[in-house]
Amino acid sequence: MAPTQELVTAALATVIDPEIRRPITDLGMVKSVDIAPDGAVRVGVYLTVAGCPMKDTIRRDVVNAVSKVEGVAGVELELDVMSTEQRKELQTKLRGNKGPEKEIPFNQPGSLTRVFAVASGKGGVGKSSVTVNLAASMAASGLKVGIVDADIYGHSIPRMLGAAERPTKVEDMIMPPMAHDIKVISVGMFKPEGNTPVVWRGPMLDRALHQFLADVYWGDLDVLLLDLPPGTGDIAISVAQRLPGAEILVVTTPQQAAAEVAERAGSIAASTHQQIAGVIENMSWLPCPHCDERIPVFGEGGGQNVADALTRTLGARVPLLGQVPLDMRLREGGDEGKPLVLTDPDSPAATELRSIADALSKRANSLKGMQLGISPTAR
């Protein structure tokens, strides 16, 4: 006996759009369902844009879902592309009819997204590696996580996450690619092929940051991490203005010269009235390969010194969240797009990073079952 329309539609409701992360039935992506008497099913599906990079995933998931319905003898899929009007309806469904002014959803009343701006005084302290592994650990624990690669000149997050896809644009919304269940956006995703530099001045940097925050469809995130450029330049100031509720995570090494510069990076909170979530000391020691003794390659005490100095400056306790040991696999994972917390979660560095991520996550409220200002206005 041939399957019913209701059973096939229910199966299609289990197919999640890989970019928007909602059922295709909720998004108006199901064009048609035709069922022949012999059980052959023909499904029409709308793609959001022509040349959708995820069309093969959608094709596979639709065929697999419908094939499991009892009585289905075969599945034929026809892909079409949404019209301009359909894309506008989809945008309204996802973001609401908010008019021409783009709002940053994380600043809206009722937003429960925890925003962390990961900062450092200077480059080379492993700030991006820490950002990626914290995000991967949080995502692996079940949180909905996003990363903004705000280091416009020195963007490296896509490589470290293995995010090779380019963003998809639906009207004036940008759908961020996903890697390891993390939504990510970076200026490197919009550049032509090759390692061409970004040569922008302050106003363009601020505009790019605003677009990453307001134009990208992030959905309901539990945590958003921003990988800031080193120092206290234009982007750090823009983050304070665009995201006044963002909490700063300061990354340093034990070396006193690095710690002094990191202290300056954290002290910006005194001027911007932001909260510092804590200090993370990276490259704290090298485990001896023979006896497991800790070798302080870059000295000792820098992270605690930064935490203590910022506590005095801000008049509020700034904790040292953790000390991450040197591990060659951490660097290798960054080069290969495979975060260490996922590939070797029991290694000393991964264990410490997961502990830091857990501590930060426990202070955040989950968004499960709750809605933000960017939630759909119609179902």
From TrEMBL:
Positions contributing to ATP binding: G121, K122, G123, G124, V125, G126, K127, S128
MIP18 family-like domain residues: 8-76
Listed GO biological process terms: iron-sulfur cluster assembly
PROSITE patterns tied to this protein: MRP (PS01215)
InterPro entries: FSCA_dom_sf (IPR034904), MIP18-like (IPR002744), Mrp-like_CS (IPR000808), Mrp/NBP35_ATP-bd (IPR019591), NUBPL-like (IPR044304), P-loop_NTPase (IPR027417), YlxH/NBP35 (IPR033756)
Gene3D superfamilies (UniProt xref): Fe-S cluster assembly (FSCA), P-loop containing nucleotide triphosphate hydrolases
GO molecular function, one term: ATP hydrolysis activity
Keywords of this entry: ATP-binding, Hydrolase, Iron, Iron-sulfur, Metal-binding, Nucleotide-binding
PANTHER family tied to this protein: IRON-SULFUR PROTEIN NUBPL (PTHR42961)
Subunit (UniProt): Homodimer.
HAMAP family with a match to the protein in the record: Mrp_NBP35
Name under which the protein is recorded: Iron-sulfur cluster carrier protein
Species the sequence originates in: Nonomuraea endophytica
